[in-house]
Design goal:
- There is one protein chain.
- With about 325 residues, this protein is mainly beta.
- The protein has a single domain (about 10-305), classed as Neuraminidase (6 Propeller), CATH 2.120.10.
- Helices cover about 0% and strands about 50% of the residues.
- The protein contains no helices and 28 strands.
- Bound molecules: magnesium ion.
- Magnesium ion (MG) binds near residues 88, 132, 189, 245 and 283.
- Magnesium ion (MG) binds near residues 46, 133, 189, 245 and 283.
Amino acid sequence: MNVPGTAQSVSERFELRFKAERPHFTRYLLHNTSLERLVSGCRWTEGPVWFGDSACVLFSDIPGNRIVRWSEAEGASIYRHPSDFANGGTRDREGRLVSCLHGTRAVVRTEYDGTVTLLADRYSGKQLNSPNDVVVKSDGSIWFTDPHYGIMSDYEGYRAEQELPCNVYRCDPSDGTLTLVADTFACPNGIAFSPDEKRLYVSETGAMFDESTTRHIRVFDVSADGRALRNERVFHTVSPGPADGFRCDEDGNIWSSAADGVHCISPDGELLGTVFVPELVANLTFGGRALNRLFICGTSSLYSLFLNRRGARRP
Ligand code: MG
């Protein structure tokens, strides 16, 4: 089924091309698989979220102002249009979709009946910039990055004045309280907890139009009460980068977007290997029946690759 507009289901296969930096990386791959392109015709894909209960992926086409749904059985269709220029997404502990929106500069939750609940759009009385990526911790708290990319042009939102520095926040969904958890970034972007939630990874992708920023993934220790961050340090520099979005596998390896595909990084910060993708990759997630299928948002397309690895299940 074709999506109205430009996005459409496709079925293309590319020979698996990879580079192992460490020998054991080859065991993470399945050598009778290929990289599959499932959807094409988007402008900038982001924010893939797996729904095992309906065996589908939702992902954003940010400039297309839509969230696209793909399933093996039905192919691509429009899930939401307009999407308020939705970017990153995840599911909360109850399985509800949580989305970062550039258009309304907010983080929202989609309820079971389809209504959309505002979770956060202001901090200290000022409007957020353009929430970018989001994760939900096992205690239900919602952690998100707030760079300015969505308000710097009219392409992925609406150009507007920036009111706040680009920070990382923790939102308590029970009362909407926002807590500032990191204020040391030029532009924080991707965000993911380690499987045991003792660490939080956040990428620095740099202020728009500023090429002088050092781009890398940083790591923090999560405080014992699970509410604050400590001991910030540089974890790994993805090259060619930047690391826009990433997720952990069951062993705590980080599978990150990169300009040449997907990089797999050990919990020690060592590059284990690269899977090459024909387009620049912005984000990815684990899905499929066994969480062993990587869904990859690469510029105009949604790709997938079966791995001999499973995504981290939440504690
Ligand atoms: Mg992002």
